[in-house]
From TrEMBL:
Residue ranges of domain Hydantoinase/oxoprolinase N-terminal in the record: 4-170
Lineage: Bacteria, Pseudomonadati, Pseudomonadota, Gammaproteobacteria, Chromatiales
Occurrences of domain Hydantoinase A/oxoprolinase (ranges): 192-469
Organism: Thiorhodococcus fuscus
Domain of life: Bacteria
Identification of the protein by name: Hydantoinase/oxoprolinase family protein
Pfam families in the cross-refs: Hydant_A_N (PF05378), Hydantoinase_A (PF01968)
Alphabetized InterPro entries for the sequence: ATPase_NBD, Hydant_A_N, Hydantoinase_A, Oxoprolinase-like
Amino acid sequence: MTLIGIDTGGTFTDFVLWRAGEVRIHKVLSTPDAPERAIFQGIAELGLDPAGLRVVHGSTVATNAVLEGKGVRTLYVANRGFRDVLAIGRQARADLYDLQPPPRRPPVPRELCVEAGGRLAADGCWVEPLTASDLDHVRAEVERLAPEAVAINLLFSYLDDSAERALADALPDGLFVSRSSEVLPLIGEYERGIATWLNAWVGPIVARYLDRLEAGLPGARISVMQSSGEAVAADQIARHAARLLLSGPAGGLAGAAFVAASEGTARRLLSFDMGGTSTDVALIDGEPRLTTAGRIAGFPVALPMVDMHTIGAGGGSIAQVDAGGLLLVGPESAGAEPGPACYGRGGSNPTVTDANLVLGRLDPEGFLGGRMRLDVEAARSAVGHLAGGLGLGVEEAALGILRIANEHMARALRVISVQRGLDPRDFVLTSFGGAGGLHVCALAEALGMRHALVPVHAGVLSALGMLAAPAGRTLTRTWLGRLDAMTDAEIASALTSLIDAGRAELAEEGVSLDGMRVEPSLDLRYRGQSHTLNRPWSSVDAAIEDFHRAHAERYGHRLDLSVELVNLRVRVRGSAPLSRLPEVGPANSVASNRWLQVHGCEAPVPVLARESLSGDGCVGPAVVTDAVSTTWLAPGWLARRDGVGNLILELLPR
């Protein structure tokens, strides 16, 4: 079967084709109004017949719907007296010292919140049973309010989901229904409610998109990347749309871990994925870390997702002068249409990409392997207009744009390293995305790092990561109690039930159970705490000691308190479609026949094809190009190519 990984970004849609041991890559401009159009275009341009294709896709449909507030009309069903849980939230101020924060519109308008019985106590006993009149009332409200989706969130439903099931069964066929006991069967009615509402709010949009995608690719076997870094069949994920909120970025982290391991490169990576619209930064210690404390559009997302920090700084980020005369970069982006001014598609605002071109760090004739010519004069005009307002020269303004963009990204990298007690110098800075290589040297120096990695196929690494991600599930269940009062056998039995459920779901998808990896873990906390740390499971005694150690490492202290088990977690994964990268041939020793005049460099700078670099490498300054990305090798940096095509960068002693 032919494998193809597809990542839909804000500016480009990327394709990585794997067939007969060879990799082929491709890019097309995204079509945000209908993302599937770009996918169909790319597959047609690659000359592929959908029949027989195995597609793994990273989708931004759910993410964009949430960020833009364009979910469907959703009814929220809660227990009597709890219709306002989502509006009240945790009563935490976004800005600690803002004593009069502006009122925030509740996720669900109050008129779309319906109450019913079916209330449980914390011990699982019934406080108020669900009655026939409750079912009649909810059905009548659905008919009156005409929602497109319904989110059901009853108290403690993870202990007994019978009331939620009865409500769901009573609703009309064809209505998209999300139950909290299915979406997130965990403690915390607010977080569980938000996850259930998000799932219902964007679920029909995702389902329609996947239907269009499957209809346009008849005969293809389509999987979608989940936020946790595991792939799932498209026909199974439609009812779990909230699992796709970090679908594309998860592919990038999977790809970074995959290529770094291919040649035994250091496994501890500090990554930044710089695309056209945003930059995602993360830590990879062997494999991407997961979190259940993520947020999107200000809403908590307690579902497992890759642990990353996102900022609005990308190649398409627009530079402008604010009312006080200061230069700002982002978060507004030129996107795919019209894109940066240098794309020649009608854009007139100066962007980070335009600034790189003005400074000579991009080859206007070799962009995307020569498939797209950049308009230098349009870039200079756009940056020049900004420079006039600042009283600067064109090159000075372009340099200012890059310095501000770099500072935004350096600050984000510090958030996930320094602010967590980790020294960036213990990691290898790994850049990918179409624009990442242009900034990697500057960011490494800003963080005091001497080693960096620009992976092979860096410009489409998220699409490559789709093929390196295994099919899998992450299942959770609340199991509250003192850990030292439980036995190994009790916990193992409860974990086994989750493992069996995960195996069954994967078997239904057609995934072979041979070689399946199972990773059980526990969410633990000190009694009285509200937040947890996830630790691998082996035994009660080992888990307690491991938690004390991890707490001291994370927060700088350990407490003489009992350790409480909150949730059980199991990650079940099959084998990845792609297990290795092909080795590259010997370096092409042909000398550069192109030179660029780069601002700040006295002599012209050579433009080098990535495949021309040998194990001995070259010393910057140089512009290193390939089919999907460009790397600016700053003065004082050495670049060499490893056996699979990764660029290994090292800052030489000065």
